[in-house]
Amino acid sequence: MQDFELDERLKRDSVAVATLGLCQIRLMRDGRWPWLLAVPQRAGVTEMFELAPLDQTMLTFEINEVARALSIATGAEKINVAAIGNIVRQLHVHIIARSEGDPNWPGPVWGFGTAEPMSDAEIAALARRIAEALSEK
Amino acid sequence: MQDFELDERLKRDSVAVATLGLCQIRLMRDGRWPWLLAVPQRAGVTEMFELAPLDQTMLTFEINEVARALSIATGAEKINVAAIGNIVRQLHVHIIARSEGDPNWPGPVWGFGTAEPMSDAEIAALARRIAEALSEK
């Protein structure tokens, strides 16, 4: 069995926030939106339906926990959840906090403009708020 | 308890293909991509994490069945799955067949251009292929 190894582009564009039972939770380095990735730690999987049934259930549970935590941590109006992967094929699920008036609202975040850099302090502060919301069940 | 009623815009923009245990499966009237919606028949729900735990599991199961069927029916390179809902707040999950060279590949389908009309015959033919793929487990 092949070992899971995080895709190089996901590694470059995001930082680890938490590790759950199945997924690494990562924060995208983009100051425009609070934007997380849930990456199931399974090698060679591209589509959600390729995961084993138990992993599919775990993924749903973890996505929904993270989405709820992100909603609480940010007070966002709407959470966007998506598995797209047209470019990076390693299965990864986007979980993004959206609010009226944010860049490209109500359009999607993908393929829109370029990432806005965040300082290490900004990343650490947001990561901490999310980790705290995740631990408050 | 409030009765489920399909949002007027979803009703106008799509046609029913199948009814599963939780979701209505609908085909978008847009000839640019084979594009389905899974709409959980639960009133007043906007976010996936607001569904009851059993419904969350059902939704995952149904999304993945439909995504696999769409992949088989179309031979698409990648299936895109997303719950966005910034405009229509009734919870609905997009399941879209994408292939290299399709309109806006590898970008997202949402917020891109305008729908390309389909004839009733085209809609019926695609709906039938998808329903057949869904029934072949």
From TrEMBL, chains A, B:
<protein>
    <submittedName>
        <fullName>Diadenosine tetraphosphate hydrolase</fullName>
    </submittedName>
</protein>
<dbReference type="GO" id="GO:0016787">
    <property type="term" value="F:hydrolase activity"/>
</dbReference>
<dbReference type="InterPro" id="IPR011146">
    <property type="entry name" value="HIT-like"/>
</dbReference>
<dbReference type="InterPro" id="IPR036265">
    <property type="entry name" value="HIT-like_sf"/>
</dbReference>
<dbReference type="Pfam" id="PF01230">
    <property type="entry name" value="HIT"/>
</dbReference>
<keyword id="KW-0378">Hydrolase</keyword>
<feature type="domain" description="HIT">
    <location>
        <begin position="36"/>
        <end position="105"/>
    </location>
</feature>
<dbReference type="InterPro" id="IPR026026">
    <property type="entry name" value="HIT_Hint"/>
</dbReference>
